[in-house]
Amino acid sequence: MALMIIAPDISVTSWVKHLSRLDPGIDIRVWPDTGSGDEIEFALCWHHPPGEFNKYKNLKCIASLGAGVEHILVDPNLPAGVPITRVVEHCMAQSMSEYVVLSVLNYCRQFDTYRTDQTQKQWHPRKPLLAEDLGIGVMGLGQLGADAAKKLSNLGFTVAGWSRRPKDLAGVHCFAGKAELAEFLTHSHILICLLPLTAATKGILNRKIFTRLPSGAYVINVARGQHLNENDLIAALDSGQLAGACLDVFEVEPLPQDHPFWSHPQIKVTPHISSLTFPKAVAPQIIENYQRTKTGSPLLHVVDVERGY
Predict the structure, then answer these.
(1) Catalytic status, residue 224
(2) More confident call, 302 vs 132
(3) What is the pLDDT confidence band of residue 132, given thresholds at 50, 70 and 90?
(4) 88-101: per-residue pLDDT in tens?
(5) Active-site annotation holder among 272, 292, 301, 307
């Protein structure tokens, strides 16, 4: 039984190192040098070529290298009946929460404005935006969203969460489904998107959503670039409906040099670094599922293909 790593856009050296350390006898093949396709039973992937998995007749598991799986599900020719798994790891939630908390505090304490003041040698103390006066709305209450919501609540913010199905989180006012979306938005002076990318959530950050937020709201998108209607965001910023936005993900990555986001004064851009996958931390669950595949045991973190996560 061989494990194939297929990730054309990234270096897999660290993955090979840490997987081999945990299972010295493991047979790892790095695509496209896979040898006999019939020996491949486990595929670890990120942005594989569409249709590629159908070449491996004995494939028993397709594992995402990260928490997201839309890069797999977008393939219209996935082999039927092969389970798909995703990464669920505390270090990824911690990394994401650090980014989200930093972005919220940076906005509330107006550090960007003070940085501009510094370059102009201006001394202008400003009243901070107080936590108790701001409602934060977190869209998506999976592992990452729930962790960020809890940490923001612990800092004294009034936090609301919205998800597809009802959730119960201490310190978080939870809303669910389309029927409760409008009310959720009225609580969101700062709106954070941590939704999975599905057909239902693609383009969800749009004019309709922005107009339902409190005037002067702030948007943080750390989920996927395809969640955001870019033209609607710029229009909402230019009209004053939104005060600003912090964006870590984009429809096209890297962000093109001529993209208006680079120079827009109310948009903060970071290069998709909010939550990175660390091979050393994630390798144990990959090896666990690899061993379960060999023994026919139930896999961890299996994706519901119909729901998309």
Answers:
(1) yes
(2) 302
(3) confident
(4) 999 999 999 999 99
(5) 272
272 classed as catalytic: yes
Which of the following is catalytic: 18, 29, 164, 224?
A: 224
**pTM listed for this prediction:** 0.93
Which pLDDT tens digit goes with each residue over 227-279?
Answer: 999 999 999 999 999 999 999 999 999 999 999 999 999 999 999 999 989 99
Tokens read off for 223: 């989920």
| SS3 readout for the chain | CEEEEECCCCCCHHHHHHHHHHCCCCEEEECCECCCHHHEEEEEECCCCCCHHHHCCCCCEEEECCCCCHHHHCCCCCCCCCCEECCCCHHHHHHHHHHHHHHHHHHHCCHHHHHHHHHCCCCCCCCCCCHHHCEEEEECCCHHHHHHHHHHHHCCCEEEEEECCCCCECCEEEEECHHHHHHHHHCCCEEEECCCCCCCCCCCECHHHHHHCCCCEEEEECCCHHHECHHHHHHHHHHCCEEEEEECCCCCCCCCCCCHHHCCCCEEECCCCCCCCCHHHHHHHHHHHHHHHHHCCCCCCECCCCCCC
